[in-house]
Amino acid sequence: MIPISSLWSRQSQDGSQLPDPGRWRILVVEDELILGAIAAEALEEAGFAVLTAASAEEAEVILSHEAVDVLFTDIDLGGRDGCDLAARALDMQPDLRIIFTSGRSRRFHESRLPVEAPFLAKPYRLSELIDEVDRVSQERPYQ
């Protein structure tokens, strides 16, 4: 598969710097570009290494080439959804932690979400996102 190239896909680090091996790597998947950019910037400022994607397909390309610690994905992505992406991502990277977000309630998506899966309802506070990433980094990945 050929990687999808877009302005949205980027790595937080400039190519001349080696990433700190102790930093958690977060993949933010959001089809609303401004929301994804804001989330990515907040996570970067909190000290995380951040990758971004605008679709499930683009995220899969990244996951096939990059080790990621946390997948933060919108559920409603326009094409394939975040729940399908999460299942495929766990096949590729079984230790991955996943945090879901949606403008719809958890109850709306509950038949597709694992009971223990972290979920942030939109609009969420950036501090809530950072706290949730910190929290899941301390836990075992769910299956």
Descriptive notes:
This protein is α/β, with parallel strands linked by helices. The chain is built from 5 helices and 5 strands, in the order E-H-E-H-E-H-E-H-E-H. It has helices at 33-45, 56-65, 82-92, 106-109, 126-137; strands at residues 25-29, 49-53, 70-74, 97-102, 119-121. A 5-stranded parallel beta sheet has the order 2-1-3-4-5, with helices on both faces. Helix 1 (33-45) crosses helix 5. The protein is globular, with a radius of gyration of 14 Å. The model is unreliable at 1-19 (pLDDT under 50).
End-to-end distance, in Å? 27 Å
Outline the biggest β-sheet: 5 strands, parallel
Compute the CA-based radius of gyration: 14 Å
Strand content: 15-25%
Helix content class: 25-40%
Task: Give the spatial strand order of the biggest sheet.
Answer: 2-1-3-4-5
Mean pLDDT: 83
SSE sequence, one letter per element: EHEHEHEHEH
| Discrete helix count | 5
Q: Total number of β-strand segments?
A: 5
Structural class: alpha/beta
Oligomer: single chain
Instruction: List segments where confidence is low: pLDDT < 50 over at least 5 consecutive residues.
Output: 1-19
Shape: globular
